Please model this.
Amino acid sequence: MMKILVPVKRVIDYNVKIRVNSDSSAVETNNVKMSMNPFDEIAVEEAVRLKEAGLAEEIIIVSIGDKGSQETIRTAFAMGGDRGVHIVNDLNTEPLVVAKILKNLIEKEAIDIVIMGKQAIDDDSNQTGQMLAALLDWPQATFASKLELNDNQIKVIREIDGGLETLNVKLPCIVTTDLRLNEPRYASLPNIMKAKKKEIIETPIEETGVDFSSRLEVLKVEEPEVRSGGRKVEDVNELISVLKNEVGVI
Amino acid sequence: MSILVIAESNGIEVDRGTLSAITAAQKIGDKINLLILEDSEQVINKAKKIKGVTNIITTSGDLQGGLAENLAPLISECAKDVTHVLSSAGTFGKNIMPRVSALNDSQQISDICEIIDADTFVRPIYAGNALATVKSLDKIKFITVRSTAFQAANDQDGDAEIVEGPVAETNGKSSFVKRDLSESDRPELTAAKIVVSGGRGIGSADNFSILDPLADKLGAAVGASRAAVDAGYVPNDYQVGQTGKVVAPELYIAVGISGAIQHLAGMKDSKTIVAINKDEDAPIFQIADYGLVGDLFEIIPELSDKI
Model:
């Protein structure tokens, strides 16, 4: 029976309007609502469905980040994750470092499938899954919108520019989730209560043996120029007239 | 500075995103090698004419389906003596570049929209709601380029040298089955000069065709908001926004789109934005250059008629 690893990241909730901090060094995260990265929720859901279908035995949830990450791991527990690993780092962890830490964990835990979000909605890198696949020399099924698991192989439909692509990848493999893979469930109250009792093993990033120094120095963070609204036009005739005479595009 | 640009091509020519990546490469250095990952004479002959490209590197072997597992080692081999490796930030580049970057123990820089110097770049974070200026400390920099932020390179007046490159080998862990591309006579969303997009206000999949005559008349691509895609009005690849495509046409016409942050992230760099919506308080009007309040089912046919 298979073991699935689902990495989850705690990010600013997708409904929050972000703002840059006062010294323009980062986006302000203090006193801001945090949630599980939405693509990771889809990954957890997919893993739970595989387990419910009797295709997987155990779902391990891992998160790298500050203390608050434990709350995100518990959210994944409430959806159906079995046990958790928290790698503690109060600072930002770059995708390559995340991939190296996950690689060690995967080898230790003898994982068969990693299902993870295609990108985190904070830094929008879209790198970790592909990097992890490279480090392990595993195949990658990125931007997945449908998975079909048949002995030792996954048939995956991926979202690509202009349409869809179908690939077969052999296990073990990395899957990264796109939006339409599934619709994540809401956790039920009994499951939220049960989630409190599940085990999380905590390891400081310094003890992972991975060099976690930064390779991409953030010099500054700014808000983009705000686009200001123009004006309302009265009717179709006026709209056509401005497009012809003022804008000149038609 | 020697730069490797990874081309994405379709059996006929390299795509618009690759031409933008070449423009970005020219801002970093002047020796540009373009790696063609398709054994196609037509693509190669056309690519030879791209201005600013020094060498075209050809490849052969198992290139089918552009599988990352087979191509990443090959790209790595071509990247040995360069300072930068670039590709466009479409799904092809997004899939393959991090794999190559990790093989070279380098922290990739995704989706750059500005080049400050050879080590320093600006990239959008939080769906473009903030811009980060980042400096790479890695020896070889692996970069994906936001194609709407750089003009397409001239593909008529160049004369690149053709150099035979490595042969792709099958890794055996993945295989290509098929590709289902949406068929359309319209221009591709990210390359179109005019985009007409529909949102939830359109109301149904059947109603969506109300945009067709307008798009046909304007030679426009048709897009959609995430709400319209989620409601099943149109396929996924129509989606413009944070999790869909980023477009920056000359003219963007948003029809029945309220203007959620997630949608604005994908179109706010358009040159002119027109919004048509029955709700005069819709957030889309705060960023539109021209707004028309009213019933789209009356406005769109009239507009298609008179334009």
